[in-house]
Amino acid sequence: MAYPNPYPPQRPLPSASAPMPPLPTVVIGPQYCAPYPVDLAVVKKVMTISDGNFVVTDVNGNVVFKVKGSLLTLRDRRLLIDAAGNPIVTLRRKIMTAHDRWQAFRGESTESKDLLFTLKRSSLIQFRTKLDVFLASNTKEDVCDFKVKGSWMERSCVVYAGESNTIVAQMHKKHTVQSIFIGKDHFNVTVYPNIDYAFIVALIVILDEINEDEKHDE
């Protein structure tokens, strides 16, 4: 005679190293959310006339995104494009704001109806970078939707979900012969499952711009 099991099987606990949100976190587009971790390589050309463009590739070396600057506003606007050259997001610095505020718009638009998210410093004085990210729907901006913490100089950066300790992406430095001799900055980004990786790349581009501003202010 079979007796019922008094201890029903329990679901395995999710991995602490790679928490998986129950639903895809879409900011820019559902096509950029994968049900597995996405590893991207980011190369920033340091010595270039074209204003330090980024190239983002997958683990196989295929180009996923590129970042271009505007010729008219070299330091105040960036355009994220896909491998085919289609514009995905326009990143624009909001002039005359105390907290280094940036806005991201869909495609090449800069109209409020196409706003995707806003990013600003958590505080004016910082020894390590802390940035708050507010999605367009979060108009009150009482609590941030994402937080970016880290040191750009060390290429060590973590993106968290809101005010929690849940990590959604991490950036880490990669030293290569190319980076030393050709003047290229090379680092890797791991985007956790179901997180919009185009959104994470956009955050890194803004983080780089804020770092460049700090260099010029020194």
UniProtKB/TrEMBL annotation:
Q: Which organism is it from?
A: Cajanus cajan
The UniProt entry's sequence similarity note says: Belongs to the LOR family.
Note the SUPFAM superfamilies from the entry: Tubby C-terminal domain-like
* UniProt lineage: Eukaryota, Viridiplantae, Streptophyta, Embryophyta, Tracheophyta
Q: Which InterPro entries match?
A: LOR, LOR_sf, Tubby-like_C
Protein name (database record): UPF0706 protein At5g01750 family
